[in-house]
Amino acid sequence: MSWGRFIHPALQGALVWLVVMGGWWRPYPQDPVWILGLLFMSIMILMPGSHALQRRHPRFWHSQAEVVCGFLQMTAFFVAPGPLALLMSLPWFIYRAWWAVETLKELLHSSFDPAGWMIGAAGIFPAIGAAWLLANRLNWMPFGFDALIVLLTAAHFHHAGFTLPLMAGLCGKALPGMFSRSACLLILAGVPLVATGITCTHFHLLPWVEPVAVCVLVTGALGVAMLQMRMAFQPRHSVWIQAMFWISGASLLVAMLLALSFGLRSVLPQWTLPMPTMWAVHGSLNTFGFGLCGLLAWSAKQRRSSTALSKGPAQD
């Protein structure tokens, strides 16, 4: 199977994303619509372009279905919340739920390996985000959260629940050891812990949970940032791949320091950026710097490795 068959749906998604962002929404970074742009960058581009990195090789029509479901999810934001928007969101939720179930079955039949489980988690966490998108489009506010928090939670599970565990797992496979193993375990625990901590803060319960959860996730993510930058020094990498790894690692480093300051806002409020600035800076760094550049680097590395392996026997 050719690499192009799996990157092609991502190119389709990129075209749709560019048309919608540039032709209709045209948000500025501190506009809440910017959150949608970041969210659909993951849904339309990053996810369809990462199948090979996830060790998943769905049939071509599965990949096409992913783009179609993502497009329907995007169009659900062109109508008012309600039954129609819910129906337009259901295909994406069903697709992500199917992917999560298939991934979970594979994990349960394999031995526990933190790096492998992190790659698997990247196929599971987005299903939670898809459920929160259903709630947003139905205008249902779970636990009394407002619509903005519901949308941000969906974005959290499509980014922190996708690109972060995926690249943590890839780093763990490429750079095995206690450091990468610890980073994987911290992220595996940190992603759901942060969501739990935000819920506790919302209900004014256990105010220490959110700061602790953020510290757990940030510690793991900073480890991934260093591993990404370390990947730039691996042999046989082109300058372009090295640059992408560096940008990815540095972007995650800055983004997670901002996340740490926001998570500690109850203790150090003077260090906290306003929420619109957070999604404009933190969210953009995670999406374009860490996520997009990181996946480009790993994809190029995988393609070069596959090419080298295919030429190996001929050279012998």
Short description:
By secondary structure, the chain is mostly helical. It is 76% helix and 0% strand. It has one domain (4-306).
Keyword list:
316 residues; 0% strand; disordered N terminus; membrane; transmembrane helix; YndJ-like
Characterization of this structure:
- By secondary structure, the chain is mainly alpha-helical.
- It has one domain.
- 76% of the residues lie in helices and 0% in strands.
- The protein is built from eleven helices and no strands.
- Helix 5 packs parallel to helix 8, helix 7 runs parallel beside helix 11 and helix 9 packs antiparallel against helix 10.
- The protein is globular, with a radius of gyration of 19 Å.
Largest sheet: none
Proportion of beta-strand residues: under 5%
Number of domains: 1
What is the 3D shape? globular
**Helical fraction:** over 70%
- Using only C-alpha atoms, the radius of gyration works out to 19 Å
Count the helices. How many?
A: 11
Q: Calculate the mean pLDDT score and round it.
A: 89
SSE order, one letter for each helix or strand: HHHHHHHHHHH
Structural category is mainly alpha
Q: Stretches where pLDDT falls below 50 for ≥5 residues?
A: 1-7
Number of strands: 0
What is the fold's blueprint, element by element?
Blueprint: H1 4-25, H2 33-46, H3 60-75, H4 83-108, H5 114-137, H6 147-159, H7 163-174, H8 178-202, H9 209-231, H10 239-263, H11 275-315
Helix pairs in contact: 1-2, 1-3, 2-3, 2-6, 2-11, 3-4, 4-5, 5-6, 5-7, 5-8, 7-8, 7-9, 7-11, 8-9, 9-10, 10-11
